[in-house]
Amino acid sequence: MAKYNILMHEMVPEHWLVPVKEEEKILKTLGVTKGQLPKIRKSDPVIKALEKVEGEIVPGRMIEIVRKSRTRGIAKIYRTVIGE
Amino acid sequence: MKVEISKGIEELKFALLSPDEIRRMSAVKVITPDTYDDDGYPIEKGLMDPSMGVIEPGLKCKTCGGKVDQCPGHFGHIELAMPVVHIGFIKEIYSILSSTCSNCGRIKLADDKLKEYFQRIKDTADRLSDIEYDDIVSEVESEASDVVICPHCHFENQKVALDKPTTFREEGKKLTPKEIRERFEKIPNEDLPLIGLDPKVARPEWMVLTVFPVPPVNVRPTITLETGERSEDDLTHKLVDVIRINQRLRENRDQGSPQLIIEDLWDLLQYHITTYFDNQTPGTPPARHRSGRSLKTLVQRLKGKEGRFRSNLSGKRVNFSARTVISPEPFLSINQVGVPEKAARELTVTETVTEHNFEKLKELIKNGPGKEEDVYKPGVNYVYRTDGSRIKISDKNAAEVAEKMEIGWQVERQMENGDIVLFNRQPSLHRMSMMAHEVRVLPYRTFRFNLAVCAPYNADFDGDEMNLHVLQSQEARAEAEILMKVQENFLSPRFGGPIMGAIHDHITALFMLTYKNPLIPLDAGLHIMSYIDVGKTPETVEVDGKKYFRGRDIFSMILPEGVNLEFKGKLGDKSLDPNGTEGTIKIENGKLINGAIDENAIGQSKGVLLDYVLRKYGNAEGAKFLDNLTRLAAGVISFTGFSTGIDDEDVPGEAKAQLREVGNEAVQKVEKLIENYKNGLIGMEPGKTLEDTLESMVMKALSQAREKSSEIASHYLGMDNSTVIMARSGARANMMNLAQMAGIIGQQSIRGQRQHRGYTNRTLPHFQKGDIGAYARGFVSSSYKEGLNPTEYFFHATGGREGLVDIAVRTSRSGYMQRRLINALEDLKVSDEGKVLDTEDSIIQLEYGEDGTDPSRSFEGESVDIDYLIKEMFGKKYGGKQ
Asked: Closest Cα of chain A to B119: distance in Å?
């Protein structure tokens, strides 16, 4: 079977790598520290798929997830990449 | 209020008791397996030795001199003749045995390897979590246990096997606890951190018991029955066994008895000590009481729902609460609860005397505690003076105490109308299972409430009991009233609509009051209106010189002013009304213009009118509307009377003939299908075998028969029929139930399939083998009214049982699922900014629900009801969907 890009699947929400420059700004508007954010493993299939586009993603980087929401339109969630 | 924490827990550390420590903390060496002598005095050096604490009032502890409430109890000890393994550490003993060398006692890993692991612990010491440490330990264990030749002394180790529950074998040879202990003694302290032990507080050989601690008597008190008979605690029984066998073992050992006998006794001692800790060890028969019940030993005291944690620490019994049977009372507001006088006299609110309530409390004290036969008048049971001393109020001292009362005293006054209480029914599955009510003290012995409140509690009156809790502080009362009052919980967070509403007879009554806008004679109308707060009676109409009210006008009286609404009722387009207008409910400026009020208007969780009133006028007005509605319904239905019986399902002869025809036709159709199948005339449907195709065709044919019978029944049973009124208005039942009573019950299924299990090739011996016709597979062509024939009856019962089993399985499964969910989510909180955080302040959701919408303030899950807003702002011209 040909490799399928899981990011293209309709059930997988959009994942974006947050540029390091913008991280602080986003954290400030959210009023949280990076450590408080939910985690995502580096070994997560989504991160692996993202790495094909963005190059290696080191632990500590931030990921923006854009989910569709019936009530909200779109909901933006952030996660911190952790090892393994 | 400032909360001061005098001591905070920073860390918890578990350690092992060393034999030395057990001896040091012991107050007495127990050597006799007896408890009391013939005179009832505890035997010295026995299991009830007074050095281990006192349980009888008056006596003094031999160790500390304290009385019952002062002495904390003291441990004793038993010197074991032979060492025995501790069942709680079997896993650890096994892993230590397999990862260390039996010759030199070192962990079977080379020095550089060990160093590496130590370095890992050291490196991460500052941020090392318990889980990570455990990971390292188990890594060491799995790596070391595979090693055969010890890298330190080059001894060839043998594989150790655990023969459950407590026997260890090395190449088939039994390892005695003594040998295990000797091996463990050889393990150097330096290696211990890598097997998960802190050498400062634990040595592995301490997992093999040589001295056995005897818990204080307070832990295992003797119970004296009324007959004077004494009965010992289960733990004491078990300790008796331990001492007895220990004694025999020692005697036999000292006499130099044969090894076989000693080994048997040793195993027996192991058994008793194992069951003393855990009487449900797999592989061990539980120790039993003389009566045959299994003993409740240490682990059983702690574990499970009835254990110390779930039953005594997480859950406790409370004061200021009551429990009794519930019953309905339509004259109470939904915010109220009727409390029986008997309970009201016992339940109290503690009030501190101030200058503001001085006179009131004085009067209450004067009332005394009151007598059961008197009319209820709130009084006082106890008062507490400023120094904390308690005075019981009786008829005699009431006046005297009232005069002496001072500011600062505490008065436990009995319940009065208007007190705020919490009312609860188990299982408490959602937050509406516990709501705040206002008290109404009533005669008799049941708690009573408005029928609309049955829904959130999931209560009925077939013997249900409920609990009531009296709030004791001003803050609690305020909070309960703002957050927990019934009217504040109208909108369920489950679906964003009203969970409470009219039920059963409320719907029937108001349907009859408004269907086709009946003429109500003047006197009847006035009687009905006397049930509600009457402002101005509606205009009367005159027919044939007699005065009448119109039903819809009476209903309009309970509508708030300015309601403008148009929506489809349950009758909808199928209305039995010739003009087909009854299904459109139209309210203009608080007047019901058209339509019959039914479940869609006022029913629980779907009443459009109720929902509208709640959202437009607020909870208080909504509560008033529902109060009036239930009263009006009671007025209507008790005046008109309403009843149903099986003769409601009488259908004329021609209908009966038609129904029979439908049944026969269906059966013949099935026979035809089977014949076609046998002749190979049926083609396979996609994704199905030939048999499946036939089955689905048969099922379709039979369900069509039931639908047809439903149509016939509906046709012959009209709106003059009580059952039809209930079904059409949505009060109870539906047209299918009706058709089953009057016409054809239909196919009985198990797991969605026709009945097929039973004997070889047939369901019942009443049928030919291989018969797959309608009747042989559970089709019931009779009606409930006619009665079922024996085979039909059997199939109906099997089908019915499936439902019962389903319910039993579902409730237990969903209960456990809910418990796990609650435990997982219990300490999440929503912060002031609307973030969902856990106890470490980690983010669970950046915004509650990822949309910041409170579902109980939403409109059926949507943040706002746009249609309503457009209609309200721009008028009807742009009207929304309704």
From this structure: 21
Query: Between chains, do A32 and B843 touch, taking CB under 8 Å as contact?
Result: yes
Per-chain mean pLDDT for chain B: 89
CA distance B639 to B512: 12
Give the nearest chain A residue to B840 (CA atoms).
A36
Put simply, whether A78 touches B (Cβ < 8 Å) is: yes
What are the φ and ψ backbone dihedral angles of B717, each rounded to 5 degrees? -105, 115
Distance from the B840 Cα atom to the nearest Cα atom in chain A, whole angstroms: 8
Q: What are the DSSP calls for B51-96, one per residue?
A: GG---STT---TTT---TTT-----EEEEEEEEEE-GGGHHHHHHH
Of the candidates B405, B391, B615, B583, the one whose C-alpha atom is nearest the C-alpha of residue B498 is B615
Residues 6+ away with beta carbon under 8 Å from B461: B326, B327, B328
Measured CA to CA in angstroms, residue B662 lies from B31, B458, B507, B669 at distances of 88, 40, 34, 10
Enumerate domains of chain B plus CATH numbers: 21-75+215-225 (no CATH), 86-206 (no CATH), 233-316 (no CATH), 321-489 (2.40.40.20), 505-640 (1.10.274.100), 646-802 (1.10.132.30), 829-872 (no CATH)
Residue to test with chain B: of A26, A27, A30, A36, most B Cβ within 10 A = A36
Is B846–A71 a contact, with Cβ atoms under 8 angstroms apart? no
- Put simply, whether A29 touches B (Cβ < 8 Å) is no
Beta bridge partner(s), residue B543: B546
Judged against a pLDDT cut of 60, whether residue A1 lies above it is answered with no
Chain B residues whose CB is inside 8 A of the A75 CB are 847, 850-851
CB proximity A31 to B under 8 Å: yes
Q: Which residues contact B333 (CB under 8 A, 6 or more apart)?
A: B438, B450, B623, B627
pLDDT tens column, B3-62: 676 788 888 888 999 999 999 999 999 998 888 888 878 888 989 988 998 887 777 888
B395: amino acid identity, one letter = D
Domain A6-82 fold: Eukaryotic RPB6 RNA polymerase subunit (3.90.940)
Task: Note the pLDDT tens digit of each residue in B435-451.
Answer: 999 999 999 999 999 99
Place of tokens 């109290």: B348
Chain B interface includes A43 (CB < 8 A): no
Q: How many CB pairs under 8 A join A and B?
A: 38
User: Are β-strands A39-41 and A73-82 bridged in parallel, bridged antiparallel, or unpaired?
Assistant: parallel
Locate the DSSP E strands across B786-835.
Answer: 829-830
**Bond into B221 cis (ω within 30):** no
Q: Where are the domains of chain A?
A: 6-82
**Partner-chain residue, chosen from A32, A35, A75, that has the shortest CB–CB distance to B850:** A75
pLDDT tier at B622, thresholds 50, 70, 90: very high
CA distance B649 to B786: 10
Considering only the beta carbons, identify the residue of A38, A75, A78 that sits closest to B851: A75
> Is there a contact between B118 and B110 (Cβ–Cβ < 8 Å)?
no
CB contact under 8 A, B851 and A78: no
Question: What are the b/e assignments for A53-70, b being 16+ CB within 10 Å?
Answer: eeeebeeebbbebeeeee
Q: Residue B211 forms beta bridges with which residues?
A: B79
Cis (ω within 30 of 0) for the bond into B165? Answer: yes
- B835 and A38 within 8 Å at the Cβ level: the answer is no
Distance from CA of A77 to the nearest CA of B (A): 7
Between chains, do A38 and B863 touch, taking CB under 8 Å as contact? no
A30 in reach of chain B (CB within 8 A): yes
Yes or no, beta carbons of A36 and B842 under 8 Å apart: yes
pLDDT at residue B275, as a whole number: 94
Question: pLDDT-derived band of residue B576, with 50, 70 and 90 as boundaries?
Answer: low
